[in-house]
Amino acid sequence: KLGCGAVMWNLERTASGNFTKENSININDLNKDNLKENLISAENIFQNYKNIQFDSKCSKLALNGVSIKDYNLLKNIEDEIFYRVYNDENIFIGIGKKNVNGFKIRTFFI
Q: What gap in Å lies between CA 63 and CA 31, rounded to an integer?
């Protein structure tokens, strides 16, 4: 502790995760002509996460909010680590993680 007061009059975030000021666009410069080239898919936002692909049975269960408890599927998945989840057709469906109750999708992107 310094033992004195302080004042901040300006704060600028230059990065957050994979996003940096250099690869951003000012909201006032965004328009219908450049919108598509400046959008980032949800899948790409989480590109640094490991991924897992479910078979059709597990995909259906996961999409219905069920915790997957299949030992053969879970044995190579780390606990409490977020994963990108893909269905049996290799379509990105969400972000999930494994805990003591099994693997469950926490956020859906379909």
A: 35
